[in-house]
Write a structure and sequence with these properties.
This protein is about 50% helix and about 15% strand. With about 700 residues, it is an alpha+beta fold. Helix 10 crosses helix 11 and helix 20 runs antiparallel to helix 21. The chain starts with a helix and ends with a helix. The structure holds adenosine-5'-diphosphate and magnesium ion (MG). Adenosine-5'-diphosphate binds near residues 189, 272, 323 and 441.
Length: about 700
């Protein structure tokens, strides 16, 4: 029998294992260092490494690795074995404190956006003791930050930790105003991960899925998702087996996988864990994605994490549930039931409103990717415009405070900030239709624009830093009055909310985000509508962004620039691979399907002609004409795509301005050519019989898992 509590976290060197395996004084020392965020003493490191190695070897590990998240967004590891040769041809297993705390991966093959070149040739990894070591396969994985020797962050973890620190500092200033002390305010994060499962055989027959993770061609099946019968429907046995297996893997790694269900599109599913501290949740989400793919293989399945594997069918996202929590586990976005807690809650909510409005461009940029470009604003899940859903009740409370009105709820309750109790917010006013990109859902905000394949690190860095900066400003404003008297403090808070709402309520939108009228309305309100990654990227290095990130020490200007370049490179390289795959499929696959079918038709026509028929009046002739016309269109579009790709490939990409131009070219020319070519090919697919069209159809792929 599988014993869940027994198996949970069995592959993690977690707190209880440390307590058990480490000498008492070492354990205490380690805890102290973690809490203070200090550097680890070498003696402590040696003792921890020793215990870790013994524990890992007992569990079958032979190797260790510094597990880190380079700027590409995937995780990286280089495995070293524990062995150390001894005289006489023997080995012993060794792992030193030095090896635990610091590693020197050969970093040259990771993108650095010019950082290493301008600073220091090598990078190093440093253990992040706030995230537990774990065993994957035969390897002990040590979560680490990845930096250059001059201290520039080369990864996605370091800035996240920095942003959490910034938020901690500012949130504590706010709490202090309410007479509250806490050790640390952490941001919490729960990622609802969407994915598709298809049969492995499909991958083998579709070069596009194999090389790009999405289909580049494919006409809609007769049955898509219009029936909505898949959503929350019964889970198929094969999928259930997969989920069970996946859960066990995740649980062993201490990943609190909690809910699983079918999603809107056929073949689409979702997994949600219980939320954790953002840093750990990000690590866990990376591991979850890796495990999803790995476990799928064992079941002869393929897990597609791409944001848009199938055109015309819902894509996949990752809802980023975010909140703030004290060391005592108090959720600061919980409305609470005393005037003081209500006021605190409203203040934090107001800060988030301002942060999201003020930095809406950065928020949009943080979720931009080649894959997500197919989702955002493309007639499904969140539009590319950032807005906040608060629900009517909360909105009206804030508006009433803003207008200086006492809030009246059903004629009974009055809301005076800091002095009276907030009317209870009913759950059902939270965003049911889920069209809002950023929704308050009772006691947390849910950022819904994140793509399924993206690292959640980026969006959380932006969100944390933006909110930290607003809290900083709020604290500056309120500290004086708070020192004066409670009355002055309450008044100042009301004034602050009033002012903030006046300036930022334009970001609040409780209506249907899918409605076209919203786009016009948003424009009137002056909200940004950054349709593609190329439109969004300049936000990253804007003066405003540089000022924000450097002020809180989250990114230096050169760190920002590096990420900007890497993101753009990643984008155009993705489109380049897609274009090349498309060209190959068109030339070597689809062209031959067409020729074979034309051959068959011509054969029939020739035979009919020998019988003396007027073949131009036959259905075969009409069909042949259609196919032949389509093939000619395809030829022209293909040639255009090829020449535009060649042109884009020849563009210089040495400076960041050039990199941007290349990305823009890919988006404006290559991407458009691909859409044109696809349209023609897809319509050919609908008239050419399956026996000639050798690629599995959408219907076959989406319904491939029985
Ligand atoms: P849904 O959005 O489908 O209604 P839930 O409301 O159950 O789902 O929550 C979805 C995710 O939100 C889960 O991963 C959950 O752990 C996470 N979550 C709940 N509370 C918090 C919180 N305080 N901070 C961050 N994430 C949270
Ligand atoms: Mg959700």
């Amino acid at each position: 029998m599988y014993d869940l509590p027994e198996e949970y976290g069995s592959l993690v060197f977690n707190d209880s294992v440390m307590k058990e395996k480490l000498p008492k004084d070492i354990y205490k020392e380690l805890q102290k260092t973690i809490k203070a965020g200090d550097e680890l003493d070498i003696n402590v490191a040696n003792a921890v490494a020793h215990a870790m190695r013994e524990w890992a070897v007992e569990k079958g590990a032979t190797h260790f690795t510094h597990w880190f998240q380079p700027m590409t967004g995937i995780t990286a590891e280089k495995h070293d074995s524990f062995i150390s040769p001894e005289p006489g041809g023997k080995v012993i297993m060794k792992f030193s404190g030095k090896e635990l705390v610091k590693g020197e991966p050969d970093a040259s093959s990771f993108p650095s956006g010019g950082l290493r070149a301008t600073f220091e040739a090598r990078g190093y990894t440093a253990w992040d003791p706030t995230s537990y070591a774990f065993i994957k396969g035969n390897t002990l994985c040590i979560p680490t930050a990845f930096c250059s020797y001059s201290g520039e962050a080369l990864d996605k973890k370091t800035p996240l930790l920095r942003s959490m620190e910034a938020l901690d500092k500012q949130a504590k200033r706010i709490l202090k105003l309410f007479g509250q002390e806490t050790n640390r305010v952490t941001t919490t994060l729960g990622c609802e991960q969407e994915y598709f499962l298809i049969d492995k055989e499909m991958l083998e027959e579709r070069p596009d899925l194999l090389f790009t993770g999405r289909t580049l061609f494919g006409a809609m099946p007769p049955k898509g998702q219009e029936m909505d019968d898949h959503y929350f429907g019964r889970i198929k046995q094969r999928v259930q087996d997969y989920m069970n297996d996946l859960n066990k893997e995740l649980w062993a790694l201490g990943i609190p996988a909690k809910t699983e269900h079918n999603e809107v599109a056929p073949g689409q599913h979702e997994l949600a864990p219980v939320f954790e501290s953002s840093n750990i949740a990000v690590d866990h989400n990376q591991l979850t994605m890796e495990m999803m793919k790995r476990v799928a293989k064992r079941h002869n399945l393929v897990c597609l994490l791409h944001e848009k594997p199938f055109e015309g069918i819902n894509g996949s996202g990752k809802h980023n549930n975010w909140s703030l929590s004290t060391s005592e586990g108090e959720n600061l976005l919980e409305p609470g039931d005393t005037p003081s807690h209500n006021a605190r809650f409203l203040l934090f909510v107001t800060a988030v409103i301002k942060a999201v409005d003020e930095y809406q461009g950065l928020m949009r940029m943080s979720v931009a990717s080649a894959g997500n470009d197919h989702r955002l604003g493309a007639n499904e899940a969140p539009p590319a415009i950032v807005s906040i859903f608060l629900g009517d009740e909360l909105t009206s409370v804030l508006n009433d405070i803003a207008e200086g009105k006492e809030h009246e709820d059903r004629g009974k309750t009055y809301m005076k900030i800091g002095a009276s109790v907030l009317p209870p917010l009913s759950k059902d006013t939270t965003d049911r239709n889920r069209t809002s990109p950023f929704a308050f859902t009772g006691n947390k905000f849910e950022f819904r624009m994140v793509g399924s394949e993206l690292s959640v690190s980026g969006p959380n860095i932006v969100l944390n830093t933006a909110v930290a900066s607003v809290l900083d400003e709020f604290a500056d404003y309120l500290e004086g009055p708070a020192a004066e008297s409670e009355e002055a403090f309450n008044e100042a808070m009301a004034e602050l909310i009033r002012k903030t709402m006046k300036e930022h309520s334009r970001i609040i939108f409780n209506g249907n985000g899918y409605d076209d009228s919203w786009i016009a309305e948003a424009e009137k309100r002056g909200l940004l509508n950054l349709k593609s990654l190329v439109d969004a990227m300049p936000q990253y290095i804007s003066d405003k962004a540089v000022a924000l990130f450097t002020k809180y020490g989250v990114y230096s200007e050169s760190e920002l620039k590096a990420r900007y370049e890497i993101k753009l490179e990643n984008y155009y390289k993705t489109i380049n691979i897609e274009a090349m795959t498309m060209i190959e499929m068109a030339k070597r696959g689809i062209t031959s399907f067409i020729l074979d079918f034309e051959d068959e038709l011509t054969d029939i026509l020739t035979k009919k002609q020998t019988l003396g028929m007027d073949v131009t009046k036959t259905s075969e002739y009409a069909l042949l004409t259609k196919v032949s016309d389509g093939a000619s269109d395809m030829e022209v579009e293909l040639a255009k795509l090829e020449s535009d790709v060649a042109e884009a490939q020849a563009m210089p990409a040495d400076t960041s301005e050039e990199v941007y131009e290349v990305a823009k070219d890919y988006r404006e020319k290559v991407f458009e050519d691909m859409e044109d070519l696809r349209k023609t090919v897809d319509s050919l697919e609908t008239i050419i019989p399956r026996e000639y069209w050798k690629y599995p159809s959408y219907g076959e792929i989406i319904y491939s898992v029985h």
